[in-house]
Design a protein that fits this description.
single chain, 330 residues, mainly alpha, ABC transporter involved in vitamin B12 uptake, BtuC, disordered C terminus
Length: 330
């Protein structure tokens, strides 16, 4: 619980900093004064209608990606597993690009991405079969990702330059243009998933013992594995449909949470889903802070900065794993 408290306080502090920075700088006193003035205040729209939904979207989408990443790493028993390997992200990207190249914008792109994510999930479940073996799931997800990625690249290569530019920008992953309706879509999925994650953690604790022992404990392995997979896929789909395929967040969140727990002397069994969700939110809020700090007048896509944050971290984690063995990831 101590690690979660530290993460929660850090997230609160970074969220307040994200609200304060931009073309107009606010102190904590300014934030309180704007809230106290209410809708009649001249800065109310800037803070409540523009900045706050952006920050809440970063937190919600980051939590969804972090949760999905931790579920995938535990389910596939691989610390390098990421939500992108499910094929859902590639499906969402394909659906969104189709809509963008058709000339649509706004919520239509989000709906297209959601439909593509559902199609990718359906393809994964159908092609993986009823047994839902780990190797079959991984190979099916990777195959879907490569196939849909190739089709998306083909569409972009043949598109009009302006529309292709819009598609590529969306494929980077961005929090720009956030408003309450988009933010509500993510939180409407994230909040129920937090409850579902409690069930998933119990399932994963038994699955980590091996399929035979899990069956001996009364677990129906294939349906349980499929249930965990659905939770992970729905989580990543809700985030990608709204903010685009922001890279590295799902991959980073689990290792960061475990590293913090080790530093604080906390040893827990099973996946740290709550910690991973908080770390995912932290990563995306930090990326948004980097966006605001570097270009407040021309906001860059947040996905650029998650890549900058994620690549060095991945190298560090791989190096630690090589020195300490696989247990360094646990």
């Amino acid at each position: 619980m101590r690690a979660k408290a530290v993460l929660s306080l850090a997230l609160l502090g970074l969220a307040l900093a994200d609200l304060s920075l931009g073309r107009f700088l606010f102190s904590l006193g300014d934030l309180w004064a704007i809230l106290a003035a209410g809708p009649a205040g001249e800065m109310w729209v800037l803070l409540i209608d523009l900045r706050l939904p952006r920050v809440m979207l970063a937190i919600g989408a980051g939590m969804a990606l972090g949760l999905s990443g931790a579920l995938c790493q535990s389910l596939f028993r691989n610390p390098l597993a990421a939500p992108e390997m499910l094929g859902v992200t590639a499906g969402a990207t394909f659906g969104a690009v189709l809509v963008i190249l058709a000339g649509a914008q706004g919520m239509a792109v989000t709906l297209g991405a959601g439909a593509g994510a559902f199609g990718g999930l359906l393809g994964l479940v159908v092609l993986a079969g009823r047994a839902c073996g780990l190797s079959r799931l991984i190979l099916t997800g990777v195959g879907l990702t490569l196939t849909l990625g190739g089709l998306t690249g083909l569409l972009v290569a043949q598109a009009d330059d302006r529309l292709a530019g819009d598609a590529i920008l969306w494929m980077t992953g961005s929090l720009n243009g956030s408003y309450w309706a988009r933010t509500a879509l993510v939180w409407a999925v994230v909040l129920p998933l937090c409850g579902a994650a409690l069930w998933a953690r119990g399932v994963l604790l038994r699955l980590e013992m091996g399929d035979e022992l899990a069956r001996a404990l009364g677990l129906r392995v294939a349906p349980a594995r499929l249930g965990v997979l659905l939770i992970a896929a729905i989580a990543v789909a809700s985030a990608v449909a709204v903010v685009g395929p922001v890279g590295f967040v799902g991959l980073m969140a689990g290792p960061l949470s475990r590293a913090l727990s080790r530093q604080m002397g906390v040893r827990t069994s099973g996946p740290d889903l709550a910690g991973a969700a908080l770390c995912g939110a932290l990563v995306l809020v930090v990326a948004d802070l980097m966006v605001t700090a570097t270009a407040p007048w021309a906001l860059m896509p947040a996905g650029v900065f998650t890549g900058i944050l994620g690549a060095p971290l991945l190298v560090v984690l791989v190096g630690r794993s090589g020195r300490k063995g696989d247990g360094a990831w646990a």
